[in-house]
Amino acid sequence: MTFLPHPSEPGQPPGCTLLALPPEIDYCNAEAMLDLVLSAIGDPDDGLRLLVLDLSGTRFMDSQGVRLVNDVRQRLHPRARVRVVARPGGVASRVLELTGLRRDVPVYDNVAEALRP
Question: Which sign, positive or negative, has the C-alpha torsion 63, 68, 73, 75?
Answer without folding.
Answer: positive
